[in-house]
Amino acid sequence: MSRPEIEIRDLHKSFGDNHVLRGIDLEIGQGEVVCVIGPSGSGKSTLLRCVNLLEEPTRGQVFVGGTEVTDPDVDIDAVRRRIGMVFQQFNLFPHLTVTENLALPQRRVLRRDKASALRIAAQNLERVGLAEKATAYPSSLSGGQQQRVAIARALAMGPEVMLFDEPTSALDPELVGDVLAVMRMLADDGMTMMVVTHEMTFAREVADRVVFMDGGVVVEDGTPEQVIAHPRHERTRHFLSRLLDPAMADVEEGTADQVGRSDPAGGRD
Ligand SMILES: Nc1ncnc2c1ncn2[C@@H]1O[C@H](COP(=O)(O)OP(=O)(O)O)[C@@H](O)[C@H]1O
Ligand SMILES: [Mg+2]
Fold this sequence. Notes:
By secondary structure, the chain is of the alpha/beta class. The chain has helices at residues 44-51, 76-81, 98-110, 114-127, 143-155, 173-188, 200-206, 224-229, 234-244, 246-253, and strands at residues 4-15, 18-29, 33-37, 59-64, 67-68, 83-86, 161-165, 192-196, 209-214, 217-222. A hairpin with a 2-residue loop joins strand 4 (59-64) and strand 5 (67-68). Helix 3 (98-110) crosses helix 4 (114-127) and helix 9 packs across helix 10. The longest helix is centred in the last third of the chain and has 16 residues, at 173-188. It starts with a strand and ends in a 16-residue tail after the last helix. It binds adenosine-5'-diphosphate and magnesium ion. The site of adenosine-5'-diphosphate (ADP) has 15 residues, from strand 2 and helix 1. Belongs to the ABC transporter superfamily.
């Protein structure tokens, strides 16, 4: 692996008595794409949120591009500028056009002048294939297009790494492919990416590594071939069998647990 772009050491996070992350160790190299999979409530979102300090870790260290972001003296805003994040919900401003949605954070956070912000907005809309929607309002776009705008908005900030938290889980199935295609393009361009997803085809074809989390620990970490095709741990096998064939899992367990692309308990984000 090239030098780690993201390094997570013995990361713990508790919410009150709820010990959610129980010692996560993970390294993600420059240009590497790591997919994080695991059952709802296993701490996937909390892990991503600790990387860009949307949550404050209880213990442990996180480094991004060699800078310790968990250092109490760190400039949090400077750290966040280096990390783009895309959520399940797109969080676009409804009263602003697509271009204005991309320009606003550049001007507010990066203090870019208007002409530069507009130029960089246009470049990134082009990149996600939505140049023709520059003057549209979010409500006139499909969910998939809105998510691509959200990705372009993150890219316009010039991040070194991108975090994705179930970016396609809120989309109708026919809209998922366009968003995944944009993510695949980013991966091909060499972006360092940490992607929480249940899209196994994407994980197999695009990820360099797949990490399976359960109960706040990393259970398995390897190539997609190792983790998805030849899981070593029973917990991984069980999760994958439920994901790939939810109907069978219901029969096996006699429950009506909903498992699939969606993440019913993960709706906070
Ligand atoms: N802000 C929060 N306050 C309290 N509990 C939280 C908060 N965020 C997450 N949790 C809890 O942490 C656990 C893991 O949640 P999460 O990281 O969202 O899991 P996942 O993304 O794998 O579904 C859950 O029990 C959830 O209720
Ligand atoms: Mg989640």
